[in-house]
Target: Succinyl-diaminopimelate desuccinylase
Amino acid sequence: MTIRDELAHLTLDLCNIPSETCHEAQIASWVQQRCAAAAGPHAVTRLGNSVLCEPFGRDERPGQPVIALVGHIDTVKCAEDQPYEIRDGRVYGCGASDMKAGVAVMLALLDRWRELENARPVWIFYDGEEGPAEGNGLGPVLDSGALPVIDFAFILEPTDRGVQPGCMGLIHATVTIPGVRAHSARPWQGQNAIYAAIPFLEKLRDWGRREVRFGDLSFYEVIVATAAATHNSRNVVPDALDLNVNFRFAPGNTAENAEAELRALAGPECTVTVTDSAPAGDVYADHPLIAEWIRREALPVLPKQAWTDVARFTTAGIPAVNFGPGETGQAHQAGEWASIDSLEHCYGALRRWFAQ
Amino acid sequence: MTIRDELAHLTLDLCNIPSETCHEAQIASWVQQRCAAAAGPHAVTRLGNSVLCEPFGRDERPGQPVIALVGHIDTVKCAEDQPYEIRDGRVYGCGASDMKAGVAVMLALLDRWRELENARPVWIFYDGEEGPAEGNGLGPVLDSGALPVIDFAFILEPTDRGVQPGCMGLIHATVTIPGVRAHSARPWQGQNAIYAAIPFLEKLRDWGRREVRFGDLSFYEVIVATAAATHNSRNVVPDALDLNVNFRFAPGNTAENAEAELRALAGPECTVTVTDSAPAGDVYADHPLIAEWIRREALPVLPKQAWTDVARFTTAGIPAVNFGPGETGQAHQAGEWASIDSLEHCYGALRRWFAQ
Model:
């Protein structure tokens, strides 16, 4: 069996195990057994529905970097008419690109762990990535104390055969614009909060996007009103308009700075309440462990204009990038697929990383 | 017992009968018995929980105008600590001003129906006024065929000892401003419906109020955004903003005209869906049956800058005005009261109307 066939069938096997977020017990057990078969039961740690595999002893390969290969095992809810098959150079299945293909590459590398040179790799399979942030299994894994000190992490999310370093941070905030209540038949006795919001909405509209450069990479900071809501009955001039404002800030910026900037933009009349917050991921495109490899493999390097778990690693002080098989545009699609070319490309590039 | 005492005790008796909207059976039966005792059972018609009383035969007093005295018998939900007593020149009770005081004046006049000259009065007590429009008992009464042809109607809602002719009409419409959906991390790929609404919101803000004069009366047409809502998740640039827009139009204008004006204001990009509609009430302040009486009684005449059941009469071709005891500012208040002065004033003015 060629490596292409092996990777394709492994991806399809993984797709055939239902693993919607909050229902990962079955796939976690499957992955756990696969890890134990490859590296021995003593190498495997299960934390809830997350699985760690560390085949090398901690005193083996002294001086070599500890490299984490990281993937989530859950998927979003699957489409009803999702095909499951290998056809026309693609693996079809729910989660094929996001990110059963990445998990398949990780398992194929684990099957050959003794052949991976010049590093001491560890494998992290975690649950809950597609659900709300508080249910994400990676945080507890990083906090568990079960891992060795990691020098670099590859997150095998789909990256269209490129490297995507860093990621945006975000805050969500409720900005409340006040008004003065009145009967809607006598609006001149009040002040309409919806109209009072116009100057702030104009500022947001005109804010545009702000480029933040890291070497050749451009991240774009944006600040967007994504929801509007009033809470009065319909025959009343509203005394408050709530806007959800989403600030996406670039690596190097912080949630605190973003909040301060939003407060300045909203002005003292408005109430600003931050409801969610996630840090940006630091940019490690030119990290010494990968810079030469990126050049040699001629990998396109693209900024991650969204939030990913890269931020969890870099916030914990661990350099990390997104690099995985599959197609970003296929993530969460009905009829999702991953190309076998991308599987082979990612597997080959990582094999060569360990051989460098 | 003076007429002041009689009116005050009658108002308190009416307040002591629970009659929240949808629970009017008890008070309807009480009013029905009161009518039958005053005018004989043959004079009384019960329609659901509405009661009609027509003591004069239809061939009596030929050539005299048929005058309706009109009041609703229900109240809003009562406050828990509402006092029920006569104290300091006031009657305290749930619904005292809105409008048990008016019903008391109606019943006191009915007790003396033989003494009422120069007209053929009928009494209309109806249910469901404080609930949604579709439950209002006056519509079925007017449609029932049980009434004679009415020449003029006094609605005894509280009017602060003045006459309030006409009333505003209204439409509510949902105006949907379209946008183009995008991920909130890449808003430049979409078009934000909230920002797209700014020009329309500016038009509404600047619309101000439009005076419509009837003789000395000024009504003010207004068009107000009273609610804003989006329906996307918070990490998405919204592709639609729904505004509830309330247009209050003056007597002489129509819901159709108001809708056309709103559509022109919103422009062709927006979707306008009318969700509620009520006609304006015509203005009869200088009607020959009341013009001289208003002058002689020196009654202040004020436009009704809201909707009332006057519109149901004038839409049915029956001239009508609001004129009743009680205080408009007390309607729906906790601790509601009606002043005995206002009861005596209204009763006296209507007695003199029948004597003119």
Summary: Chain A has a mean pLDDT of 95.
